[in-house]
Amino acid sequence: MQLFHYHWWTDKPEEMERFYQELGFETNLRVGNYKGEMQTFKPPLEWEDFRDEEVRFRIIQMVKGQTNITFGQGKRDTFDHIGILVDESEYSQTVEKAQEIGWKVSEGERRTFISTPWKFKIELQKRTEVVTEEEHTFIKTMEILLPFSEKDLKSLRYILDLNIAEQNSERVEMGNPKWNLVFRSDEQTRLNSVKFHLGDEFNINDPVKARLIGQN
Fold first, then answer.
1. What counts of helices (H) and strands (E) characterise the chain?
2. Are residues 40 and 30 in contact, defined by beta-carbon separation less than 8 angstroms?
3. How many domains is the chain partitioned into structurally?
4. Strands ordered across the beta sheet of 2-10
5. Which Gene3D superfamilies match (predicted)?
6. HSE (CB half, 13 Å, CA atoms) of 131?
7. How confident is the model over 73-120, as pLDDT tens digits?
8. pLDDT (tens digit, 9 = 90+) per residue, 20-57?
9. Positive or negative CA dihedral for 156, 157, 160, 166?
């Protein structure tokens, strides 16, 4: 399993794309609704080529190394899901566990989503081409704010086969040798920060106010 991805809905898609480009991410896909039809606006097209066309973007995908970030047009900043690369065996085991405990699983040809109790989803992805072959810019840690529930976090740990690294009434950290998920108690669910490993050094907020930390 590899934690590789997160997705936002936001009213700032152009600002988000420009920000991540400045961090070295490449835009490899734009899909949006134009005149009632879904169309692609992939590079080499730039925003100046379609800015006045009132395209409502369903997805803009950006990739750097082993990290894939997507966002789409929304009314406000909304954290939607995280993504995990899995092989066939990991996929089958994860889906089976989620179904066993009663979490909703929506299987698709290109990806599968598991709904959590906190209004964010877990994407299971088997297609390795969603990241590049370059061995850099791994997601090491994600910190997510959410309404605490020890029972539900225990279920998540079971589904993803993670070990507890630290736990108290306000914070739970779970993970494996490759990556960690940190959960902090909060009334609303939100992706608070992301730490990248083997990338450039930076410490900055993106336009939706998620803290991004790059460490060598």
1. 4, 16
2. yes
3. 1
4. 37-40, 26-34, 56-64, 67-73, 2-10, 78-85, 121-125, 112-115, 105-106
5. 2,3-Dihydroxybiphenyl 1,2-Dioxygenase, domain 1
6. 25
7. 999 999 999 999 999 999 999 999 999 999 999 998 889 999 999 989
8. 999 999 999 999 999 888 999 989 989 888 888 888 99
9. positive
Question: What is the CATH classification number for the domain harbouring 91?
Answer: 3.10.180.10
Q: Rounded to the nearest 5°, which phi and psi values hold at 111?
A: -165, 160
Helix 150-160 to helix 88-101 angle (10° resolution) is 150
> Quick check: 136 and 63 in contact, CB under 8 A?
no
Beta-strand runs (E) in 98-147: 105-106, 112-115, 121-125, 138-146
Please give the model's pTM, rounded to 2 decimal places: 0.91
Q: In a 10 Å sphere around its CB, with 0-12 CB exposed, 13-18 middle and 19+ buried, how is residue 185 labelled?
A: middle
In terms of residue numbers, what domain contains 204?
2-215
CB 73 within 8 A of CB 32: yes
Angstrom distances, CA of residue 150 to CA of 153, 167, 183 = 5, 10, 11
Percent of the chain with pLDDT over 90: 76
Position 55 scores a pLDDT of 85
**Count, residues in the chain:** 216
